[in-house]
């Protein structure tokens, strides 16, 4: 393919100097006719016609060997000469890479211009040099157009290719039509994005074209059987067809002639090659880039001083390219296929060992090892695992599976299985679960606690750690006491209610100790107590005891994260943040994407608790990028999606919350994750005004939490959200009952943030008209101050905007954190927002004005908008001033006139 004699069967191109200089352009000259290339010829003819008008363009022609690339380029050159355009036709050769700027030399020589000195320097050209060479060419052209045809560009030297790339991107100077051809598979040259580029891929000739050429060339001898053989046997390849027809003109041939010629075109390059060239071909077939000439020569058994000559000969034959590879995969398969199976395996193993001994990149050596049988040496596993760590997707799992074929001691086998399971969680989660479960319950040997607990952490991070797997690991005889303590803690931490789960209910796992000394069990006891909303001081003590323990070999990252969650529920947000950052840092050091994503999702929950909404959204986005939601276990996926929706609702973006729920739609399964999703769905439905559907979701969320004894309102305050639905439906007594229950549960829990949050929720649900509204807000402000729950505190301040300095403090917090909902509420309550550029009224003012214009009383407006009557009066005063009217009687007419005026402005040309 791409050999110097251009075996395209239609034309043999030679180096041709630019011609037709100074002659007037002749329009309407088409390309010579080529079989089944009408569209390509028409495209190129149009470009030739447009060139004198100043329209430069780039055309890349690619195709398989023998497809007629050279013929098409020769036709372009011929048509350009017939049109009296300046033409430079430069076919590249395998020897070109040995000398820089071979293409440039031919073009400048044809123009009668000396080669610029920049093209002859010893230093590789940079952008400045390439730009200067392009300007030199345009100066030589003197605004006259040029058709530059470069055949087999893949043979060209690197400086020439770089120069052509620079030339193709030029917008100023003489117009140039650059037409280049490349062999498919070697078509690495691409025009710049700034060029007017077109791509032509030459495909095999169709059956009708092949039949027509056979009849045209052979006349009466072209019977239907022969035509059928040509169609099927040539594959539409013009070079195969041309050679077959040439033979048929000399002597008759049977049906095997055409496929035989196709095979001969490849075999003739391999059969009869000197042994040295065959050995070099085999080395090229086995060794990827990175081995270098010295190692390639050693593997091939070729003297180093003769390797360069051997490679040059292979390139000239079209078997090897200029980058150290083979031009066709079949070449490698054929030369390796000529070896015995034993010799071939030994050859691959020797290549891999050679690469390893000489420091070749692990990825390159691993690619060879994947094609070998068992090597039986430790270095092979080392290379495969190292390559997997920098690989991507299914390549990683393939490398690790190959590593598992080698003989491994228990610790090494557990480590490889751990890496394999972690990688599979991102491409085949079910397979990942199986391999991680193997680490926990099937790999024998002592001292594997670090690997077992890492596997458990990964399974928990994804959200699905089966209880039976934990039980099997817990009962292993080779499990240490510290490891057994962590496994027991993981069992009781498992999402859902372990007492109810049929898959583990009959195994009789021991209960958590009443006063756990084990740090992992202390962390679990803390978070379980916190969910129930009991004994916050005890929860703090257990969580801090768990986090104070030094990180040992048998230490579960999940346990430390559980202690952090417990501190978040106690309202110790700063302390939780500090330890949470440590968990995230440890996850990053371990390098497992699933662990990092879970740590980010948990940090997003802490950000949400503190009101850091932008940071929460960013962490969730990063978690999704590391692990797409479809790869999370459904139980945890529901929690992550629910958290994202809650963040958007808190930010006042119900539209984004709905998009999050719909984008990664999942069912609210059992466990805490399902409760999170039900709660988030309820909030979004409430924002959308679908109160009945919202109430149903929220009640189901509460039912699930209550069934497990999870009463802490800091976990999910479903009662106050449901109360909002009931108030909107006029069922205020039921709403008060739910709010009272939430406040009682918050007081049972006893933290300032919980009790203050419950008072705020009651005030928001009942509205300003409720007798207890002011007292609830007062309690909320006092209790939430200094807790770290800044969003709830700012909301309480905003709702109490008429008291003392609350307005300024709320506004400052809202501005600092970018809380859109708080700012909007402050606008509604104070009547001093930024004006709407459409009509000078704020959104809050417009709502009040429209209701007033419709005849609604100030008291009813205040009730409808959940603001005070004084706020309504302030809004109306500002509206009257901005509209230039005296009072309510003129309001409807002024609004109508203003809207009509604005409509006219919008359509004004």
Automatic annotation (TrEMBL):
<dbReference type="GO" id="GO:0003677">
    <property type="term" value="F:DNA binding"/>
</dbReference>
<dbReference type="GO" id="GO:0004016">
    <property type="term" value="F:adenylate cyclase activity"/>
</dbReference>
<keyword id="KW-0067">ATP-binding</keyword>
<dbReference type="Pfam" id="PF00196">
    <property type="entry name" value="GerE"/>
</dbReference>
<dbReference type="Pfam" id="PF13191">
    <property type="entry name" value="AAA_16"/>
</dbReference>
<dbReference type="GO" id="GO:0005524">
    <property type="term" value="F:ATP binding"/>
</dbReference>
<dbReference type="InterPro" id="IPR000792">
    <property type="entry name" value="Tscrpt_reg_LuxR_C"/>
</dbReference>
<protein>
    <submittedName>
        <fullName>Regulatory protein, luxR family</fullName>
    </submittedName>
</protein>
<dbReference type="InterPro" id="IPR036388">
    <property type="entry name" value="WH-like_DNA-bd_sf"/>
</dbReference>
<dbReference type="InterPro" id="IPR027417">
    <property type="entry name" value="P-loop_NTPase"/>
</dbReference>
<dbReference type="GO" id="GO:0006355">
    <property type="term" value="P:regulation of DNA-templated transcription"/>
</dbReference>
<dbReference type="InterPro" id="IPR041664">
    <property type="entry name" value="AAA_16"/>
</dbReference>
<dbReference type="InterPro" id="IPR016032">
    <property type="entry name" value="Sig_transdc_resp-reg_C-effctor"/>
</dbReference>
<dbReference type="GO" id="GO:0005737">
    <property type="term" value="C:cytoplasm"/>
</dbReference>
<feature type="domain" description="HTH luxR-type">
    <location>
        <begin position="834"/>
        <end position="900"/>
    </location>
</feature>
<keyword id="KW-0547">Nucleotide-binding</keyword>
């Amino acid at each position: 393919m791409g050999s110097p004699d251009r075996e395209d069967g239609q034309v043999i191109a030679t180096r041709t100097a630019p011609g037709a200089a100074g002659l007037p352009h002749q329009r309407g000259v088409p390309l010579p006719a080529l079989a089944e290339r009408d569209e390509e010829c028409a495209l190129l003819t149009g470009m030739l016609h447009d060139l004198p008008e100043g329209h430069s363009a780039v055309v890349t022609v690619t195709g398989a060997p023998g497809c007629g690339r050279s013929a098409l380029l020769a036709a372009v050159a011929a048509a350009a000469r017939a049109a009296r355009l300046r033409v430079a036709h430069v076919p590249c050769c395998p020897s070109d890479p040995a000398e820089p700027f071979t293409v440039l030399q031919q073009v400048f020589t044809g123009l009668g211009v000396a080669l610029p000195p920049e093209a002859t320097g010893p230093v590789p050209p940079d952008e400045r040099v390439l730009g200067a060479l392009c300007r030199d060419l345009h100066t030589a052209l003197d605004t006259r157009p040029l058709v530059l045809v470069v055949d087999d560009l893949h043979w060209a030297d690197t400086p020439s290719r770089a120069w052509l790339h620079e030339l193709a991107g030029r917008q100023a100077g003489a117009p140039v039509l650059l037409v280049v051809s490349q062999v498919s598979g070697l078509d690495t040259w691409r025009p710049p994005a700034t060029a007017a580029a077109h791509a032509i891929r030459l495909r095999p000739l169709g059956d009708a074209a092949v039949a027509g050429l056979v009849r045209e060339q052979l006349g009466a001898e072209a019977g239907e059987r022969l035509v059928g053989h040509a169609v099927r046997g040539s594959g539409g390849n013009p070079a195969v067809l041309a050679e077959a027809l040439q033979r048929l003109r000399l002597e008759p041939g049977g049906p095997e002639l055409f496929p035989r010629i196709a095979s001969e075109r490849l075999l003739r390059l391999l059969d009869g090659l000197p042994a040295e060239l065959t050995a070099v071909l085999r080395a090229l077939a086995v060794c990827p880039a990175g081995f270098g000439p010295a190692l390639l020569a050693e593997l091939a058994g070729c003297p180093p001083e003769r390797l360069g000559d051997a490679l040059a000969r292979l390139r000239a034959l079209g078997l090897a390219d200029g980058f150290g590879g083979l031009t066709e995969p079949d070449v490698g398969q054929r030369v390796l296929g000529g070896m015995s199976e034993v010799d071939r395996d030994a050859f691959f193993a020797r290549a891999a060992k050679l690469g390893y001994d000489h420091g070749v990149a692990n990825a390159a050596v691993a690619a060879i090892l994947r094609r070998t049988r068992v090597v039986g040496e430790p270095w092979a596993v080392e290379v495969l695992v190292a390559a997997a760590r920098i690989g991507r997707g299914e390549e990683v799992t393939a490398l690790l599976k190959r590593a598992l074929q080698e003989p491994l001691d228990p610790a090494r086998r557990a480590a490889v299985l751990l890496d394999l399971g972690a990688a599979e969680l991102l491409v085949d989660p079910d397979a990942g679960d199986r391999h991680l479960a193997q680490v926990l319950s099937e790999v024998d040997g002592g001292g594997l606690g670090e690997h077992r607990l890492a596997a458990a952490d990964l399974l928990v991070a994804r959200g699905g750690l089966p209880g039976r797997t934990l039980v099997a690991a817990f009962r292993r005889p080779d499990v240490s006491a510290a490891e057994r303590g962590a496994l027991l803690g993981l069992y009781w931490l498992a999402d859902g209610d372990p007492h109810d789960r049929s898959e583990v209910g009959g195994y009789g796992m021991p209960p958590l100790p009443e006063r756990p000394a084990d740090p992992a069990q202390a962390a679990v006891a803390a978070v379980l107590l916190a969910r129930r909303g009991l004994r916050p001081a005890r929860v703090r003590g257990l969580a801090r005891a768990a986090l104070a323990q030094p990180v040992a070999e048998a230490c579960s990252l999940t346990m430390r994260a559980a202690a952090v969650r417990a501190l978040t529920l106690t309202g110790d947000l700063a302390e939780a943040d500090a330890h949470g950052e440590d968990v995230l840092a440890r996850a990053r050091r371990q390098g497992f994407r699933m662990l990092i994503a879970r740590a980010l999702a948990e940090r997003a929950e802490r950000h949400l608790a503190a009101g850091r909404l932008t940071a929460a959204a960013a962490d969730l986005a990063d978690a999704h990028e590391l692990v797409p939601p479809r790869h999370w276990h459904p139980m945890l996926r529901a929690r992550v999606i629910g958290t994202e929706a809650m963040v958007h609702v808190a930010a006042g973006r119900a539209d984004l919350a709905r998009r999050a729920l719909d984008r990664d739609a999942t069912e609210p399964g059992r466990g805490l994750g399902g409760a999170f999703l039900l709660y988030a769905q309820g909030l979004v439905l409430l924002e959308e005004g679908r109160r009945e559907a919202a109430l149903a979701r929220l009640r189901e969320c509460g039912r699930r939490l209550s069934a497990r004894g999870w009463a802490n309102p800091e976990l999910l305050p479903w009662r106050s959200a449901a109360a909002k639905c009931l108030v909107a439906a006029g069922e205020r007594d039921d709403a008060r009952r739910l709010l009272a229950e939430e406040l009682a549960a918050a007081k049972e829990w006893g933290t300032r943030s919980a009790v203050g949050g419950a008072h705020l929720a009651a005030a928001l649900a009942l509205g300003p008209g409720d007798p207890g509204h002011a007292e609830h807000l007062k309690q909320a402000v006092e209790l939430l101050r200094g807790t770290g729950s800044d969003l709830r505190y700012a909301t309480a301040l905003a709702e109490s905007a008429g008291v003392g300095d609350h307005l300024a403090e709320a506004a400052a917090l809202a501005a600092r954190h970018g809380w859109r909902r708080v700012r909007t509420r402050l606008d509604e309550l104070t009547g001093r927002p930024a004006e709407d550029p459409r009509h000078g009224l704020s959104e809050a003012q417009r709502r009040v004005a429209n209701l007033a214009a419709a005849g609604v009383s100030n008291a009813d407006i205040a009730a409808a908008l959940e603001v005070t009557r004084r706020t309504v009066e302030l809004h109306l005063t500002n509206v009257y001033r901005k509209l230039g009217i005296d009072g309510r009687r003129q309001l409807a007419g002024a609004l109508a006139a203003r809207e009509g005026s604005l409509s006219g402005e919008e359509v004004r040309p």
